[in-house]
């Protein structure tokens, strides 16, 4: 379920907007300069190999990258693997990586082909928690304070667009603001 929940930055209990209407979500995010759109969902994307996924979305990718600004386009995927004793640690490590507030030198552009994750955009006096699901494309502008929660059982396939190969590297603010906000699972509960 794609979801937008807008909260006061100094009080997560002060919920200003909560909607699952994707048109409303797009309109609300655009007020803050955040691009949100929907691409068609490929059934079985979670089990489709990366080359096939990139080929399927090639026309969409070409349109998004008409200017050629994204020189590095790849796929990030993580799925629960309960047969692997190392998986809980891998999952926790992946989740922790971007759970603290940070910003990037370039736009963070993600298309969710499968699964879900939540971007928390800290803009002025608000935090916009945006749960992205299969079919959602979100672009976090360069310099925008944000964090990302993939939940305790990370499960997603996302196409990533980078200008520089190290564009994913975060500049962490050291602010523990994210601890005061509902997690991905709490938002969806
Ligand atoms: Fe980020």
UniProtKB/TrEMBL annotation:
Belongs to the acireductone dioxygenase (ARD) family. Its EC number is 1.13.11.54, 1.13.11.53. This is Acireductone dioxygenase. Monomer. It holds the Pfam family ARD. It comes from Nocardia ignorata. Binds 1 Fe(2+) cation per monomer. Its cofactor is Fe(2+); Ni(2+). InterPro entries: ARD, ARD_bac, RmlC-like_jellyroll, RmlC_Cupin_sf. Pathway: Amino-acid biosynthesis; L-methionine biosynthesis via salvage pathway; L-methionine from S-methyl-5-thio-alpha-D-ribose 1-phosphate: step 5/6. Catalyzes 2 different reactions between oxygene and the acireductone 1,2-dihydroxy-3-keto-5-methylthiopentene (DHK-MTPene) depending upon the metal bound in the active site. Fe-containing acireductone dioxygenase (Fe-ARD) produces formate and 2-keto-4-methylthiobutyrate (KMTB), the alpha-ketoacid precursor of methionine in the methionine recycle pathway. Ni-containing acireductone dioxygenase (Ni-ARD) produces methylthiopropionate, carbon monoxide and formate, and does not lie on the methionine recycle pathway. It is an enzyme of class 1 (oxidoreductase). Keywords: Amino-acid biosynthesis, Dioxygenase, Iron, Metal-binding, Methionine biosynthesis, Nickel, Oxidoreductase.
């Amino acid at each position: 379920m794609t979801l937008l929940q807008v909260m006061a930055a100094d009080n997560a209990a002060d919920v200003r907007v909560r909607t699952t209407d994707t048109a409303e979500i797009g309109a609300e995010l655009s007020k803050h300069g955040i691009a949100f759109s929907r691409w068609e969902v490929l059934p079985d994307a979670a089990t489709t190999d990366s080359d096939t996924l990139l080929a399927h979305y090639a026309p969409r990718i070409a349109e998004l990258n008409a200017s050629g600004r994204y020189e590095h386009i790849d796929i990030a995927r993580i799925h629960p693997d309960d047969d692997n004793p190392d998986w809980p640690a891998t999952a926790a490590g992946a989740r922790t990586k971007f759970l603290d507030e940070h910003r990037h030198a370039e736009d963070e552009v993600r298309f969710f082909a499968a699964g879900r994750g939540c971007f928390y955009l800290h803009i002025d006096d608000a935090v916009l928690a945006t749960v992205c699901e299969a079919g959602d494309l979100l672009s976090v502008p360069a310099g925008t304070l944000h964090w990302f929660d993939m939940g305790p059982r990370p499960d997603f396939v996302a196409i990533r667009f980078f200008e520089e190969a190290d564009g994913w590297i975060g500049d962490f603010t050291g602010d523990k603001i994210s601890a005061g906000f509902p997690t991905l699972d709490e938002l969806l509960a």
